[in-house]
Amino acid sequence: xxxKEERSKFYKTRAWxxxxxxVLSRDNYECQQCKRDGLTYTNKxxxxxxxxxxxxxxxxxxxxxxxxxxxxxxxxxxxRHHNQKHNRFTKKIxxxxxERW
Length: 101
Ligand SMILES: [Zn+2]
Known about the structure:
Blueprint: H1 4-10, H2 14-26, H3 32-36, H4 41-44, E1 53-57, E2 74-78, H5 79-90
Bound molecules: zinc ion.
C-alpha cells in the first residue's frame, strides 16, 4: 500500500507522465465514462478538453502500486467522472457499526 506522499511522488515521475500521455491518446482524449453514457463530451468541452481530463487508475494506486504504470489499468476520465468515482469509493460504512454486543 502506498502512502499519500508516495503517491504524490509517483505522479511527478517521468514514467507516469509518459504513460499518462499514452493512455490519453489511446482514448482519443475522450472521457470513457461519458462515451459509455452516450454523451458527446468533446463537443461540450472542446476548448480546453485537455485540462479537464484525468487519467484514472481502475485498480487504485494506493492498493495496487504494481499496476501503477500498467496501461490496461488506466482509463481517461473527465474531472466530473473522476470525482464521482472517488466519492463513491470513500463512502464506506464505518466498521464500528458491526461491533455491537
Ligand atoms: Zn465524463
